[in-house]
Design a protein that fits this description.
By secondary structure, the chain is α/β, with parallel strands linked by helices. It has 5 helices and 9 strands; from the N terminus they run H-E-E-E-H-H-E-H-E-E-E-H-E-E.
Length: about 240
């Protein structure tokens, strides 16, 4: 039986040298907090597991209605059941899908993680710590890995009215799969993936940490599965080529 993503990733973090923030906070009624502290690296991380409910009430129904509307407007044509892929849609369809999903994803994932990381910085007295958003896609297969990365990257690109970065407590993004494999041309067997990097291209510290975390994560996966497994540490181009099995 598959273990929960939260339990498995917690074991990984402890083996990697990280700490559970809940063990560092005062007992009783704990404050709003993120999940993990990587003290040596000066990084605080929050894990979000995507499920259909992350995208708002009745998301599958609303997505079906939107796809039906595209058919009526002849913006796309398909027959039977089909998996919609963002990069294959017309620009107006991409914008309408973003309008449907951006609000719930922003509220339930990005905004909430930003608040949790910010409050954890205060409680731990680590105001200069960097924040990492961890996203596990296992509970949601209605959106391909590329689509999730695209939408979150768009949200993290938002600015405040005075030009500052919105959700400024998130400095990096780490997306991965654990229980649900993907397929990719050139690979004969199911594979697991991760996709990670800094929010800002010139953030060398966060880039180095993401690379170290990915390497440790893949090593951990091999250990818990008891055998070598195929994995992809995907870059921006590779993630657009992987699909859920």
């Amino acid at each position: 039986m598959n273990r929960s993503v939260e339990d498995v990733f917690q074991d990984f973090v402890l083996g990697f040298g990280g700490e559970l923030v809940r063990d560092l906070l005062p007992p009783g009624n704990p404050p709003i907090n993120a999940d993990f502290l990587f003290r040596k690296h000066g990084v605080i991380a929050e894990l979000k597991c995507l499920e259909n409910s992350s995208f708002g009430p009745n998301y599958p129904k609303k997505m079906q209605e939107l796809a039906d509307d595209w058919m009526r407007r002849r913006l796309m044509i398909f027959f039977g059941t089909v998996n919609i892929e963002l990069q294959k849609l017309r620009p107006e369809c991409q914008r309408e899908w973003l309008d449907l999903i951006a609000g719930p994803l922003q509220r339930n994932v990005v905004k909430k993680a930003d608040t949790q990381i910010r409050e954890t910085k205060k409680w731990l007295g680590m105001l200069d710590a960097k924040g990492l958003l961890l996203v596990a896609s296992d509970g949601n297969v209605v959106m391909q890995p590329y689509d999730v990365a695209y939408f979150i990257t768009r949200i993290l690109g938002k600015k405040t009215t005075d030009g500052r970065a919105q959700y400024s407590n998130i400095d990096g993004f780490f997306q991965f799969s654990l229980n649900h494999p993907v397929k990719m041309h050139g690979f004969d067997h199911p594979i697991l993936f991760s996709h990670a990097g800094p929010r800002s291209t010139d953030d060398d510290k966060m880039r180095a940490f993401c690379e170290e975390l990915q390497a440790g994560w893949f090593k951990f996966l091999c250990k818990i599965k008891g055998q070598p497994i195929k994995t992809i540490s995907s870059d921006g181009d590779a993630i657009s080529k992987i699909k859920w099995m």
